[in-house]
Amino acid sequence: MTLFIYLLAGLVAVYLLFWLGIVLNTQKVCECGHCRTAMHLERTNRPLYVRRFYDFLPLKYFRCRRCQRTFYLHKNTPDSEPDKMKDIIPAPKGSYS
Question: Is pTM beyond 0.85 here?
Fold first, then answer.
């Protein structure tokens, strides 16, 4: 009986540690926390363990293409993907002719 209680307590501890890792990896703005870029982000599928055990969490999963780090955003956080590329490319400073 005590072995069952220890096993159950261990499983609960592992579950809470994974949950804590997800919460600490969640950001409030749509930019990479490591390289501070908002332009090279890619929405990806959540890992299998997140889909299976933490599906109740309202999170979006992103990957930075610049530094390959992954992070989560809250579902109500707007994505910062530009509508058109001309919105983020500055105009040239001088003429080339």
Answer: no
CB 79 within 8 A of CB 43: yes
Tens-digit pLDDT profile for the chain (97 aa)?
Answer: 889 999 999 999 999 998 888 888 788 788 887 888 777 778 888 888 888 888 888 888 888 888 888 888 877 777 655 455 455 556 666 666 5
Residue with the two structure tokens 């994974």: 18
Q: What is the CA radius of gyration of the chain?
A: 20
Q: Give the residue from 51, 34, 53, 16 showing the smallest Cα distance to 61.
A: 51
Whole-angstrom CA distances from 60 to 24, 29, 45 are: 14, 12, 8
Give the phi and the psi of residue 74 in degrees, each rounded to 5.
-65, 150
Q: How far is CA 69 from CA 42, 62, 63, 74, in A?
A: 11, 8, 6, 17
What gap in Å lies between CA 67 and CA 40, rounded to an integer?
Answer: 9
